[in-house]
Amino acid sequence: MIPGRSAAAAPAKWRPSLSLVVFLVLASVLLLPLFSLYFLKVYQNQLIRETESELIAQSAALAAVFHREVESAISRDVPLGAKAPPAVQAPTDGPYQPIWPKLELANESVLPPRPEARPPALNPNPAFVALGARMTPDLAATQNVTLAGFRLLDPNGVVIAGREEVGLSLAHLEEVAEALQGRFAAVLRVRISKHDQPALYSISRGTGIRMFTAMPVIVRDQVAGVIYASRTPSNVFKNLYEQRTKAALAVLFMIVPTLLIGFLFHRTITEPMRELVERTNQIGKGDRAALRPLKRHGTGEFATLSQSFLEMAQRLDMRSHFISTFATHVSHELKSPLTSIQGAAELLRDDVDEPDMDDDDRRKFLDNIIADTDRLAKISGRLRDLARAENPVAVGATRLTDAVAILRASFAALDIRASGDLDMPVRMSEENAMIILSNLADNATRHGSTAFDLSAARQGTLLVLTVSDNGEGVSPNNRARIFDSFFTTRRDSGGTGMGLAIVRAVLEAHGGTIRLVDSEAGAAFEVTMPISDSALS
Prior knowledge:
Layout: H1 18-73, H2 86-89, E1 110-111, H3 126-146, E2 149-153, E3 159-161, H4 174-180, E4 185-190, E5 209-219, E6 222-231, H5 236-242, H6 244-284, H7 300-353, H8 359-390, H9 400-410, E7 415-420, H10 430-446, E8 451-459, E9 462-469, H11 499-509, E10 513-517, E11 524-530, H12 533-536
Parallel strand pairs: 1-4, 7-8
Antiparallel strand pairs: 2-3, 2-6, 4-5, 5-6, 8-9, 9-11, 10-11
Helix pairs in contact: 1-3, 1-6, 5-6, 7-8, 8-11, 9-10, 10-11
């Protein structure tokens, strides 16, 4: 793992939360029975439409026979009924006059049981009585095959043919009254069965209703009679048995969603959890290849959990690598001054036994010892600052305007210019803010800067601080190394190569960043600091 590399992040995309997944699963299980009931209702409505369509077709055939009998056997002197509506007299869509089924099984559409027939106000015309007698065999033959009930009514609504109620009037029925005015009518009525129904039939309302249709017979633009038909719609369970193959497919379609629910739980909860546990064991055994995003995250919570876990593991791995690399750097940096001190001390000691140096040579060696001692003291202090930066004692909150005022007093030789949202409080203590700014100012001074510009701007939850100077800048060969510990191009002037490393450590410990940006002159850095929670609320 290379120091400074960001943690491997999971692809950014929307993922459902665990609570949402659980809710959807429970809702799906809850709605399955409702979907079944809805399916039965839709299927029962389809059976009702089919029954209505069959009654329309059968009534139309009988109406054609009725029409022919009236034209051929009944004198034009015999009075007919009401005048047909204009739409029936002169259709606008060609020779066809289709009647489409429209009934649906709904609470408001089912009427009470059919009232009993009543004595007629006027006796039927003998001509229509004779017509009914001629058509009675046709009605009986049709009913034997279709299992539907048929009655022929004269222009006044009196039954002239049928198995029952011949000679009685049905003109008081809603559907018959509508047909006597020349309009087709169909209704659903509550059915009173003569036999006990199985308990299972109570699920389907279709078994407790009967359908009635009234089709007017139009002759010479007048109502000459009515074909009154009735039938009980097919039983949904009997029909399902007859269509058992399709019913089995419907059951299969109910099983498939259940299996999909199980698969959803496996993909969104079980599998990511199992992989995360396995990844934990691999990382615990030192397998760095396990520091990668999970194959599947499932839910938003698991994505956040796995990302937090990987970031923590990578920080620990980076810290371990940093300690190893840092120890190597420290030993190298301390070796040079210690070797120089040791060599100078040995020469001075030899000179005591056999004096061969003059005072200038002795002073030169002593100055070297003092210089190397000062360098060791600076390195020790920088190491202490770096340790404090890696582990900040307190976060706190501060405004950069206060830190800039202190910075101007500490670096009087620099022309420090500040602008922007410097009054925006950032989430770090004033001491840590001063460590960042003072190290950046010291770095600018060591590279010949006379001006030091600070410009702050808020971007969401971060304060972006642009720091620039007019010094020598950074050469292209050194741009990738300036944040490395102990890297310096000013070792001869006392540079330790720890300043920018300390700045980066302080910022990362507080959730911030620093990067070198392009500039026309000097060096420029972009620093991000998290804004204090008090300013966000």
